[in-house]
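Batch job 17 of 40 flagged for manual review because the log was empty.
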Amino acid sequence: MTTTGATQSAQLRELARLPAASDAALWLCALGYFACYVPYSALTKALSRGVLPGMVRPLDGVELLPVTSIAGCCAALVFVTIAGWWRYATQLELFGRSLPRPRRATAQAGVCSAVIVVTTTLAYTFEGVSIVLAMLLMRGGVLAIAPIVDALSRRRVRWYSWTALALSALSLFVVFLARGGTRLSIACAVDIALYLGAYFVRLRLMSRMAKSIDVDANRRFFVEEQIVTMPLVVAVLGAIALVDAGPIAHLVRRGFTDIWGSGVLDSAILVGLLSQGTGIFGALILLDRRENTYCVPVNRASSLLAGVVATAALSFVTGQPFVRAEGVGAVLVVAAVLVLSIPPLVERRAARARAGPPS
């Protein structure tokens, strides 16, 4: 067999065995993501609208951040401890003790993840911006980013990636056309832009440092990113509250003080726990060894469908209308997910058949 033939045969075998070991785990993570995201997005929107029983006034999204971030930080530490994953992190010897620490790249990913945590929560609180619209902007944007990251990482980007990109762009056009896209506030536009920028950098770092057949490498990335993400969010919010200069800082301070006696503290804590749940399951999906054009659709489908369910539930409970155009946009993004997800599965099954049994 020629060198080229041997290389192609090896590539076929690798492609053939990629989904075999982790499909079940991947879709279980997707189910966990969905289960956390439905109540997370619905509760966040309900708190920002002031429609929960016992609420005296709506809570601004910035007010929610301190409590939700503290709860999320605790949840992350508990998860890593129960899972026994601290041992995977890079270790630092300090005063005779070994402590986990992030590497430079994972610290950068942790900063990006912190930006994603904050901007995601804020996206569901802007006046006039529904859950589904916010999710279309964020999820459609990340779907578009996935093949670009794969191209920059020198991974083959197939026809279905670009087809999904076109469907995602069309979904955004449909929603903006129906709602009059100029209604999107500057604050919301900046929030979405920061979210997408952070995701782009994070996916690039994941592609370079993890997404490997080596499970230990993936868990190392996950733990080191978590070491940075939630503590950084809480620390930055605390510093802003101490300065208390300007309206945003004042809202952050109120989030550290007034919310404790607001009567909805338990709901705010639950939002933080559920948010961290989506962060954990979402990261595990994205760290799967397969390409971003496979993992991102799995991640996005879970959150998008959760957003539609949450919006429908809020519409039923509060009597607020469900915007039909957003449903159409959601269908287009689901179509993008199917275009991205089904052809790779067919390709891998064909590759498995051509590669034959392992030698």
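Reviewer: the log was empty due to a logging misconfiguration, but the result itself is present. Residues 3-8, 10-21 have pLDDT under 50 and may be disordered. Unflagging and moving on to job 18.
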